[in-house]
Design brief:
The structure is a homodimer of 695-residue chains.
Chain A lengths: L24 H10 L5 H9 L6 H18 L15 H21 L22 H13 L2 H12 L5 E4 L15 E5 L4 E5 L7 E2 L10 E10 L2 E11 L12 E5 L12 E5 L2 E4 L8 E3 L5 E3 L3 H37 L19 H36 L6 H28 L12 H13 L4 H17 L29 H24 L5 H7 L1 H23 L6 H19 L2 H5 L7 H18 L3 H6 L5 H4 L10 H11 L1 H8 L5 H11 L7 H4 L3
Parallel strand pairs in A: 1-5, 2-5
Antiparallel strand pairs in A: 2-3, 3-9, 4-8, 5-6, 7-8, 10-11
């Protein structure tokens, strides 16, 4: 009973001496799940609802997944198509097929889950049809005049056109001011002429641009009568709606295989003097009259920028759940994977979850995923507030929101991509299999580190804000905690003190204040240009930026659980909060800042408290990952299915691999390579099987 | 002249105002290459020769690449096939084709470069035909009796059989003692019966096992008359050499797509009571007589283990060069990629290499790649010495070699995979393109982190050795530097002192001694079992292990360049040595160990010295990567070609993507998805292009 027999174990061979697990993988999973101290369904409501319960939101999400998974006919016993035998073109086909089902679900149901994420919880721009809702429509709302909006919005929102956003060029990424595509005003005809003046000006990377989009918002330098007015947005039709061919003068195509996102057609576009009507310039804040006179609202930049920050809040949210996915898989596999021998386990191999270095790493990451989720909820709420303020003419919270969202984008994408990769490694060799689901999650996650500019650029935005704040006559509101800083302190805390959130906040605040003050002093003492000083002290600035965001994450975690919750939920979330705070403050990066000194006994005490919290969290490991509520189909993982039946499922899927099915049809031989490569390699097959047994 | 025109820039549009780079990418590359302070060819000889010059070794390596690349017909203007449109089966076909060419080159030329690495510098086991030389043959040499060796070796070495090594099982990885496959002796017939008793006992992962190997060394538990004699090795024919079908009772297949290594058939095998002759047990150290009596040489384990360490030394070497590959690509792209604005660059966008955070990260990694190369050379030489000692009956250096190779395996695989991924991120979005070459390098590199056991297991082997050494009556020879440790010291050093290698060694030694002593004390103070104490202090043990390996790497770097070298080479290698040492000692991980305290001014001084060294190294960045001597074909990178002509090459390859070629044949439309998905999605195409311009 203890081992899983093949159909033909009828042989009478002795198995007495063989080490067998006492429980099957399914039983191990069941046992782990039953150890939980709380009801994971209730935690699901906290995660996906507001800060108070919302069973309704969870139900709607479940229904959306059920509808779409039904339409896609997913089935756990079948090898997911993506792990089979697809080439680039087939991936694209499949992406279009599944993508249209998900987006149609959104169009049919007022509030669709799939606006921001795809079925596998990748960012929705991995779906060729989703960019319309994710970026194209919001940009229209931001930049269109009322007349323009009345025309374009219904088309985009009803799915009658498919949008792309063509900003990035082959040679120009983050620095928008360096874009080279030109939009030259022709006074004769009253048209703009869109043109790609060099290879490096080719639009490259925009999602859906290759083969799915009918329209694009194209960012180009506006040139009127020889004067460069800088970059502006134009809406352009790029493909015929009759036969879908690229319109004259436009070359479109795919940019090929990427680490992930192969369901969509990140594309390129070359424009050869393509003429568009003057009114395709998005005119909310910028106007060009028929005779070519240009005017622009000086306030527009702030509003535009505020609107564009939305993309980053979506990235932050998404990363939290992609990390959660990887952790769900790794945690589930860790409670059913048995390895090595520990004396106290008798004959049986212990589950690897019981090893300190495994559960320390896993549970710390689980705490970070929760921290990320709560930070994401906090920032989304603040962002909505800011938009409302902007709508009533107040832009004063923009600089802070810009900073905190940039920093959180860097923090969450880095945490998620490093964490997902670490989770993958914690699954050993099997994590390297595509059918583990992990490589795709890691690859999709890591993309976000370079989205909207590599994270180094994001951290710079945070440190610039901090330095500007320090230089201001009085500290901005969000930096007032730094005012009380008057040099290094020695904290009086010990033992249980480190389990009090207010103590942890005090330490985080002091660290942030200290690093910021010291970086500022270093800058002030520097000769030469500000840019060169920033370059010289880049590391110190980076660490200060990071400390500021760590504090924000801690505070949002604390305030997110300071609501009425069942006591079991409150207890487990508090443990996660403590684990996040203790491991962050005693992490190498934190401790290494020579400016931040906790004493050795204090650090030892924090590590002891960490061990205690880990012990308390261990029984809840499965429930904490169950609470994220990922369907088996959305995980697409042979290692991470809910039932824990790992080995049976791996073999079931392995035998369904087309390469194996095709070989089996030919007696177990891959005909092509055998004839073309192996047979010649064996050099006339001098050795015959009979010969082999002669020995 | 400054921009690269499309063929039809005949339009008379003004480009005056457009920011244009002053130099083309090719010119930027040339300029960077010409700044070097030394001759990169001379450094190539140091890298690939012995510690003294060996132009000969470099020439032979160049010839091997030239022969194989010629046979494969590589051409920089053609999109490499792997970036096109391959499915799993086509990847396998291509792997068999290119693999046989590389291995045949080795069989035809006595000393082939491709014994250890493939054409892309992946480990040779990414080639389905290479495992024979990399693992199968060495294992035969280790475990065969003289009679067996005389029979099998000529077959394997002449390429008349293709070998695999079937150890790992679906449910059992690192812990060999837990394997479940049985080899039961049948006294009646004098045969062993090889059998897979459960799903989790399926052989899973062995290279070449799926479709390439004709034979395998199978590791199974030997059972004689109901007694389990533990795991032993058996050689088995698994496929017919006539028609290549799996032999009766054997099921073989591929395990599907992996993150990388898709050129080879990591496979699975299920055995159903397969009978093999008794003499297929490898009998050098273990004998089973015809009547079933078992005897085993108690010394065999050490010799076997010593032999198996070879695999790890190959991994260490390989990782050094895979990191070097990624850095070659990232460095080359960084000197031609222009981004952002810096005031002192006037109108032109600066190359991103000039940004501190870019060259700090890149050059630090370059120094680590060099450190890794020298450590690999040192360890390989020591390993050969150990084998010679073992051959003459001395096994006393085995425990040390086992420890240092395990630690170096963990250090180098982690350094390489994190470093390659960081290099990829430093290329921004383009590093995410498969045609950048980086995703494949990262994915192939990261596999080595879990090879032979995840690195956590490797670090444990180091810390166990250290703790055992501390507990011994006298410290082992390699730990004597720890004897003088008598508690924390305050170093008197400042400023230029930190540029003296002997000072750095002293600091590294003190750090290692201190962390080891403190971990040992912590263990000794712990109640309960040793296993539980190790679990509790896992982090402290891990950091101590790491410090010990850091010291080894430093020492091997120092001794590797303490040879007669041209002064320009010696100068640049010394700078790299200093950069490695300074950044290691002032890294977060190092500084965070509360037990290791350099004062703030000392750390500031080390950072200042680091900045100086970086400035000095900057002009040599291209030469340092050129010295690794990677051919363009071996990099397969649109970003990392030697000539720097990045944007032209990306577009050249992009236009050759089969998906684009096929669409172009159909007027720029992907026919299948247009009909099946896009057209229905657009909902009857209500909007017509004429309609669009009405606005």
């Amino acid at each position: 009973m203890a081992h899983i027999p093949y159909h033909d174990t009828s042989g009478s061979l002795p198995v007495r001496e063989i080490i067998m697990p006492a429980l099957t993988q399914v039983q191990l999973m069941e046992r782990s799940r039953n150890q939980a101290t709380f009801d994971s369904n209730k935690l699901t409501e906290v995660i996906f609802g507001g800060q108070v319960y919302s069973k309704d939101a969870v139900d709607r999400q479940k229904e959306a997944f059920a509808r779409v998974e039904k339409a896609l006919n997913t089935d756990l016993s079948k090898l997911p198509a993506r792990y089979g035998n697809m080439n680039r073109e087939q991936m694209m086909d499949e992406g279009m097929r599944t993508g249209s089902i998900a987006v149609n679900d959104g169009l049919d149901h007022k509030h669709s889950f799939f606006d921001q994420s795809n079925l596998q919880w990748s960012l929705a721009n991995s779906n060729p049809f989703s960019l319309t809702g994710l970026l194209f429509t919001p940009l229209l709302r931001l930049q269109c005049s009322a007349e323009q909006l009345a025309y374009w919005l219904p088309l985009a929102e009803s799915g009658r056109i498919i949008g792309s956003f063509a900003q990035t060029e082959l040679g120009h990424g983050t620095f928008v001011g360096g874009l080279q595509t030109t939009a030259t005003f022709d006074k004769e005809t009253g048209e703009f002429v869109i043109h790609t003046p060099s290879i490096s000006a080719t639009k490259y990377w925009p999602g859906a641009l290759g083969f799915a989009a009918t329209h694009a918002i194209v960012v180009a330098r506006m040139i009127i009568a020889g004067t460069d007015h800088g970059v502006h947005s134009f809406v352009m039709q790029i493909r015929s709606l009759e036969d879908f061919k690229p319109l004259p003068g436009i070359e479109l195509g795919d940019i090929g295989l990427k680490m992930s996102y192969n369901d969509t057609d990140n594309g390129y576009a070359v424009f050869k003097h393509v003429r568009i009507p003057r009114k395709h310039l998005l005119m909310r804040y910028t106007t060009v009259t028929r005779d070519g006179s240009y005017s622009s609202d000086p306030l527009s930049e702030k509003l535009l920028y505020g609107g564009l920050l939305n993309g980053r809040t979506v990235i932050i949210r998404n990363c939290a759940f992609q990390l959660a996915q990887a952790l769900t898989i790794a945690t589930r596999y860790s409670v059913v994977r048995q390895q090595g021998e520990k004396k106290d386990h008798g004959l049986h191999q212990p589950e690897i979850m019981s090893y300190k270095l495994q559960h320390h790493r896993l549970l710390t990451l689980v705490s970070m995923a929760y921290a990320n989720i709560f930070a994401s909820k906090t920032i989304s709420a603040s962002y909505q507030q800011m938009l409302e303020q902007q709508a009533s003419g107040r832009n004063d919270s923009l600089p802070y929101m810009h900073m905190i969202i940039a920093g959180l984008k860097a923090w969450s994408t880095q945490t998620a991509s490093d964490g997902a990769e670490d989770a993958r490694k914690m699954c050993g060799g099997h994590g390297y299999l595509m059918m583990s689901g992990l490589p795709e999650i890691v690859a999709s996650c890591t993309a976000t580190c370079t989205f909207e500019g590599e994270n180094v650029v994001m951290w710079k935005q945070v440190s610039r804000y901090l330095m500007k704040g320090m230089a201001a006559p009085s500290l901005p509101h969000d930096m007032v905690y730094m005012a009380s800083y008057s040099g290094p302190v020695v904290f009086p805390y010990q033992g249980d003190d480190f389990l009090r959130p207010e103590v942890l906040v005090e330490i985080f605040e002091h660290r942030s204040a200290r690093l910021t003050h010291e970086a500022y002093e270093a800058l002030c003492n520097e000769q030469g240009s500000r840019a060169s000083a920033e370059n010289t002290h880049a590391v110190a600035l980076h660490i200060a930026a990071r400390a500021c965001i760590d504090l924000f994450v801690l505070q949002s975690f604390i305030s997110s659980i300071a609501v009425t919750l069942p006591s079991t939920l409150h207890a487990v979330l508090t443990r996660l909060l403590l684990l996040y705070a203790l491991t962050t403050i005693s992490s190498p990066l934190s401790l290494s800042s020579a400016t931040f000194a906790l004493s050795s006994p204090q650090i030892a005490s924090m590590r002891a408290q960490t061990n205690t919290v880990l012990e308390e969290l261990l029984p809840d490991a499965i429930a904490l990952t169950d609470a994220w509520n990922f369907t088996d189909a959305s995980l697409s993982s042979a290692l991470g299915c809910r039932d824990g039946d790992v080995y049976r499922r791996i073999m079931e899927w392995t035998r369904q691999l087309p390469i194996n099915v095709h070989a089996a049809e030919n007696g177990g031989v891959l005909k092509g390579p055998w004839e073309a490569s192996v047979k010649p390699f064996l050099r006339e097959g001098v050795v015959r099987s009979r010969g082999m047994s002669r020995l």
